[in-house]
Design goal:
By secondary structure, the chain is mostly beta strands. It has 4 helices and 36 strands. It has 3 domains: about 140 residues, Cupredoxins -  blue copper proteins (Immunoglobulin-like, Sandwich); about 170 residues, Immunoglobulin-like (Sandwich); about 130 residues, Cupredoxins -  blue copper proteins (Immunoglobulin-like, Sandwich). A 7-stranded mixed β-sheet has the order 17-16-13-19-24-21-22, with no helix packed on it. It has a 6-stranded mixed β-sheet with strand order 1-18-26-25-20-23, with no helix packed on it. It binds CU-O-CU linkage and copper (II) ion (CU). CU-O-CU linkage (C2O) binds next to strand 8 and strand 35.
């Protein structure tokens, strides 16, 4: 492990601060990405859809992960990873609830990898965790599994222990859209790339590697300096003057986003990690931590064709955030600094275009009804504490770093359990668990402290510093000790550093 310094003592270098302030003043505070250059917008990349090939009643999705390069900055191209020929990220898989599917993953990298289906309900043998290594040149064909998830946005990404930060940073990942009849019956925008926009948010720092400039840094780093939306820097998108839907994934290594519009407009959260909510929840700000997804509706019907609006992240002073929120550290460089930290930054520039005929013009009043596991059925309650020997030491669960050969929890198949996760006193975290979708019951023991927008099915939960979250889940998917399920912090640097545990269900 490289030495880590305490991020609370990281000082924003004075000269960098002065330069940044000067650049902001010169640009009038608008049209800047990281504050140091005026912006030329690039059209938001929209990953292609992959619907699979059906034979014998089973739909197979063929994925191949390979190295590529992408022109992100003037000069040298950036070395990247992508699925199916993409120069960053991968296609969006479209799954229909109830269909039997299998995933066929070829590893064309020169190193080992695994591919995990984040949020999908499937057995451990198909889950793609750290034990399911795909050797270079090899192909992993999962067992067939039925799509059990509700309509929502899921994702896939490598899960190779201690390699996840590298492989995710280089661009290995993709979205999964599950469709079902309930969602299809609702008057929601669902024309992909037109009024239903996938938005994968992350950031990168560029460094010189082996004498080549413009390469992604993926060691001793928590935050990037430049925002990438679907791999696009300074992204803009044209959206019709009606109700539009954004499917947002925080695909970061560590940063949290506190999203909102520059004009302060209200938008509607309609769904979270594992399904739609009962009804839209109006908000002006929305926090997403790494691994989380939220779907939102934005009503552009009152906007003028040709006008613009900006989705931003309000990560600076005055935003209501405090130390512990990832990306609020007051430093522009170093392991826990970034040009995007401790400030408001642009996420997506929207140009309002003419309405499309047949587009959605009104917000739905209600969405779906869900039946959640009931507290009366809880057969076991567990507490899992995030621990560390002190600031700068690796995070662990209950004092134990990740061990591939140790099963940390044994769950009975079909059992309903409640789990309470405590964040500890050093930093915030993003807790994710495989094999289930859960319902958040309480924050710090209080049901009323759970946000209205996070009342739906979840697989990832924000754990603010010094807080606890309790969720309930029914463990219907099985996993044995050869392919156990994982629970971990989805701040990928914490995960790679050992903040991960394993459990079996049988
Ligand atoms: Cu998104 Cu265990 O992972
Ligand atoms: Cu963490």
């Amino acid at each position: 492990m490289p030495p880590r310094y305490d991020r609370r003592t990281a000082l924003r270098p004075l000269l960098a601060a002065l330069a940044l302030a000067g650049a902001l003043a010169a640009c009038g505070g608008s049209g800047t990405s990281s504050g140091d250059t005026p912006v030329t917008y690039n059209d938001l990349a929209v990953p292609p859809l992959l619907t699979g090939t059906t034979s014998g009643g089973v739909t197979t999705f063929d994925l191949a992960l390979a190295a590529s390069t992408k022109q992100l900055k003037p000069g040298a191209r950036t070395e990247t990873y992508g699925f199916n020929g993409a120069d960053f990220w991968g296609p969006t898989l479209v799954l229909n609830r109830g269909d039997p599917v299998r995933m066929n993953v070829r590893n064309d990298l020169a190193e080992e990898t695994t591919v995990h289906w984040h949020g999908l309900l499937l057995p451990g043998s198909a889950d793609g965790g750290p034990h399911q290594v795909v050797m270079p040149g090899a192909t992993w064909l999962t067992p067939a599994f039925p799509v059990k998830n509700r309509a929502a946005t899921y994702w896939y990404h490598p899960h190779m222990h201690m390699m996840t930060q590298k492989q995710l940073t280089l661009g290995a990942g993709g979205l999964i859209i599950v469709r079902d009849a309930e969602e299809a019956a609702l008057p929601l925008p669902r024309t992909y790339g037109v009024d239903d926009i996938p938005l994968v948010l992350t950031s990168r720092r560029f460094t010189t590697t082996s004498g080549v400039a413009n390469q992604f840094q993926y060691t001793t780093i928590a935050y990037g300096d430049y925002l990438l939306a679907n791999g696009t820097m300074n992204a803009q998108v044209s959206l019709p003057r009606q109700v539009v839907r954004l499917r947002i994934l925080n695909g970061e290594i560590e940063r949290g986003y506190n999203l909102g519009f520059k004009d302060g407009r209200t938008f509607q959260v309609i769904g979270g990690d594992g399904g739609l909510l009962a009804a839209p929840v109006p908000v002006t700000r929305l926090v997403l931590v790494p691994g989380e997804r939220y779907e939102i509706l934005v009503d552009l019907s009152g906007d003028t064709v040709g006008s613009t609006l900006d989705l931003q992240s309000f990560n600076g002073p005055g935003s209501g955030l405090a130390f512990g929120f990832a990306g609020y550290e007051n430093a522009t460089s170093g392991e826990f600094g970034s040009l995007l930290n401790y400030r408001t930054f642009d996420v997506l520039h929207v140009r309002v275009a003419a309405a499309r005929s047949g587009g959605v013009t009104a917000l739905p009043a209600t969405l779906v009804s869900s039946t959640y596991p009931s507290v009366g059925d809880v057969s076991r309650s567990r507490t899992v504490n995030i621990t560390a020997d002190g600031p700068g030491a690796p995070f662990t669960f209950d004092g134990l770093g990740f061990d591939m050969d140790r099963i940390d929890q044994f769950v009975t198949a079909g059992a309903t359990e409640s789990w309470t996760i405590t964040a500890g006193t050093i930093f915030s975290h993003s807790f994710h668990i495989h094999g289930v979708q859960f319902k958040i019951l309480a924050r710090n023991g209080s049901a009323s402290a759970v946000g209205s927008h996070e009342q739906g099915w979840k697989d990832t939960v924000y754990l603010p510093i010094r807080e606890a979250a309790t969720f309930i889940a029914r463990f219907d998917e099985t996993a044995d000790a050869s392919f156990p399920f994982m629970y971990h912090c989805h701040m990928v640097n914490h995960e790679d550093g050992g903040l991960m545990g394993q459990f079996t269900v049988h």
